[in-house]
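assembly run, all chains below
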Amino acid sequence: GIQVEQSPPDLILQEGANSTLRCNFSDSVNNLQWFHQNPWGQLINLFYIPSGTKQNGRLSATTVATERYSLLYISSSQTTDSGVYFCAVYNAGNMLTFGGGTRLMVKP
Amino acid sequence: KAGVTQTPRYLIKTRGQQVTLSCSPISGHRSVSWYQQTPGQGLQFLFEYFSETQRNKGNFPGRFSGRQFSNSRSEMNVSTLELGDSALYLCASRAGDGNEQFFGPGTRLTVL
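ok done. output:
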């Protein structure tokens, strides 16, 4: 099956810093989602992005499907951005295949 | 519009017991999927239901089963619980193919 790899696995930032999270996938995908998992375990939708670039406030995402990767940018990070960020792809069928996540800690 | 809801939020069971988890999708969503999250295996797909039919199934033993009702609410059942079944179980719904999935808050199951 398709493999989804995220990097880096862990990231520590000072408040106000910018960061880029990467998601590589091993096969062509129909669509891709980015999530933020809060400390209580809920997955919060960030972006639904099969290709191109989308922005939502301080966050933006770019997917280059032909090169099989997606990037999540976080600018001017805040402590509330801490948590785990997941990339997940739709390949064959209607199921999401998740990457291993990037654990982000933003220090005040 | 209310989000995906899951009950119960927390559950403690002992080995050998069975458990039933419930999921109510966003109103109008006909597809419900279930995922298991563990520290060792990460997030893994269990199964997907659409219009009361199982469309996809992940690589889990037959002890894991599910169903969907005519109102799109879904339940999953795990029989003969094992310690390794301790996990966060997440339910997601989507309006249909080509739409994004939205997740519920999860049910945290502990097997003692």
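DSSP finds no helices and eleven strands in chain A.

The longest strand of chain A covers residues 83-90.

not gonna interpret more than that til we talk
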